[in-house]
Target: Vacuolar protein sorting-associated protein VTA1 homolog
Amino acid sequence: MAALAPLPLLPAQFKSIQHHLRTAQEHDKRDPVVAYYCRLYAMQTGMKIDSKTPECRKFLSKLMDQLEALKKQLGDNEAITQEIVGCAHLENYALKMFLYADNEDRAGRFHKNMIKSFYTASLLIDVITVFGELTDENVKHRKYARWKATYIHNCLKNGETPQAGPVGIEEDNDVEENEDAGAASLPTQPTQPSSSSTYDPSNVPSGNYTGIQIPPGAHAPANTPAEVPHSTGDIRLTPEDFARAQKYCKYAGSALQYEDVSTAVQNLQKALKLLTTGRE
Model:
């Protein structure tokens, strides 16, 4: 993919989007779709913060040039031309990063790459807001991931051993304020997990932890049969129910394009439950 024109110096007003822009740069070759939506999120957020100050207008103009160049390069990629596919792509990617980091955390393998994965997952969940409001599940994953990144980073920096797995997140702990700590001293380029700790959804233990639920099926081996819910009687589905079921089926189809069986199964199970019980 052709290199993008560099951006001007980031105005101080845009500090809150600096990590999203860094994530975009890191994914230009790794996953251009993710890079595109990170920049789109930064653009939309920057416009809300300050679109009038000269240095901010100049920065946003150059960022818009990058977005247009990326859109042209990606051509007819469905994840760009169809929002529902793009949203599924981003959610799948963020979930993979979250589950990889969570698996490493629960196994007591604390390293910069897992901290980076937790924090990047939280940033990508921010980016999902370009498609609309986040689900409660995404909100909880974002808070837990950002808090975990900060907690483990600070432990390692202070020479302490972090407690593996869920340790209870304080509801009044403002993780947003700690985002610089969570991102500090992390590698500027993402590194692939080593062969000894490669992300594998089937290795993630099932179960819930404080305020967070690992989505059903995300931890299941690919050949695990889905548990089919039984109809509870005369179910009357609304047009909205059908639309949501269709959305889950499209998410599943998108996941299969990337050979992500566990996420496809998860979304098909959601659609099946909705259609057979009238509830999500």
